[in-house]
Design goal:
7-stranded mixed sheet, single chain, 25% strand, 10 helices, alpha/beta, 366 residues
């Protein structure tokens, strides 16, 4: 048991074997007043925090296969989820505002919860056979600076120099750290297994050059504040879109890997990435920047988590070039972690960047 200067007290339980349900009882006596509290149906297992902007917020009912997920929700009584209310604060909060309290999944409560977070958690529970807790803390149209602590802001301002910081939630100014303060800081007493992150579209819209510094710095900061220096951190690389040409999605996508092209790496250790380049959704009702392919993304995050968070070896990285051989004016690129499967007959499946710019190629797979 520990007491904070504010008078708030807390109890940290020892590690428990996964399972349940259990009942936790607490009693307080002062003079002639005795208060007994019982918390019922408590499960011990792994808790994952799902955060970011609207693609993480994208609900179960809107994604492909969503109706089937909703119908089968009650079959997973050992998955519990909670949703943090979307809110802002200029100072760190001690208690989060709650939109949906800890709940067992049913068709009514689940349909508005994060599709990626649910589909990921369901796969984990099916594979590991332990209780899984899911925390949804997301805010549409939010830039990375809103999710970053003040020390990240200060450090990256020094690194990026004269950067455009004057954009944010809905174009508002002065919203640095406001989501960190309101929606993440209050969760810091919790013990979490890992983080899932889907964000970057708002920064791509303005080509925010500070993203290269802030993304690794934010991850490091979250790990420090959650007392887990190697906290597993999975994220979604932004999908392709052609509905708004000129935005800096490729640049932000590259910055998501700390400009190294693959994770984990020395700048982003203990991370895993779900590639979404092949998951464009031109007919998406909420816009092409909101693809409905959340099942595929959740599955890729799941495979990454098995490797990084649970040390269960399974293929989780996409094809990557291993060698290039030139002969008779042709270049043959050999990929590892294949095979490469094209979903349709694309007239230009690959881009090649040269000193003179980008060219599209018709590149057969052999």
């Amino acid at each position: 048991m520990h007491f904070a200067d504010s008078g708030v007290w807390g109890v940290r339980l020892p590690s428990m074997e996964a399972g349940g349900p259990y009942e936790i009882s607490a009693s307080s006596s002062m003079k002639n007043l005795t208060v007994d509290i019982k918390i019922e149906s408590v499960l011990f297992g792994d808790v994952w925090l799902c955060s970011g902007q609207s693609n993480m917020e994208f609900s179960v009912e809107w994604m492909f296969n969503g109706s089937q997920e909703v119908r089968g929700a009650s079959s997973y009584p050992t998955i519990r989820f909670i949703e943090i209310m979307q809110s802002r604060s200029h100072v760190p909060l001690k208690e989060p505002l709650i939109r949906q309290e800890w709940s067992s999944p049913d068709s009514d409560k689940l349909k508005e919860f994060s599709g990626i977070c649910w589909a990921f958690g369901r796969r984990l529970q099916e594979r590991l056979h332990i209780p899984i807790g899911l925390i949804g803390a997301y805010y549409g149209n939010s830039p990375i600076k809103a999710w970053s602590s003040s020390e990240v802001m200060d450090d990256c301002r020094d690194h990026t120099g004269n950067t455009d910081w004057n954009y944010g939630l809905g174009g508002a100014k002065g919203d640095r750290t406001v989501l960190w303060n309101a929606m993440i800081a209050a969760l810091l007493p919790l013990e979490i297994k890992g983080v899932l992150w889907y964000q970057g579209e708002s920064d791509a819209n303005v080509n925010f050059v500070g993203f290269l510094c802030m993304f690794p710095a934010m991850i490091k900061s979250w790990r420090t504040h959650f007392r887990r220096p190697n906290l597993p951190f999975g994220f979604v690389q932004l999908a392709c879109r052609d509905d708004e040409p000129g935005i800096a999605t490729p640049e932000i996508r590259w910055h998501q890997t700390a400009d190294l092209g693959v994770v984990p790496n020395e700048l982003l250790p203990n991370t895993f990435m779900a590639v979404a380049l092949d998951l464009s959704d031109p007919g998406a009702p909420l816009g092409q920047h909101h693809p409905r392919h959340k099942e595929e993304i959740a599955e890729r995050l799941f495979f990454g988590a098995l490797n990084v968070a649970y040390n269960i070896a399974t293929p989780f990285q996409g094809p990557s070039p291993a060698s290039v051989r030139s002969s008779n004016g042709r270049a043959t690129i050999t990929f590892i972690n294949g095979p490469i499967i094209l979903r349709s007959n694309l007239s230009s499946a690959f881009d090649v960047c040269t000193q003179k710019g980008k060219i599209d190629l018709i590149a057969p797979l052999i």
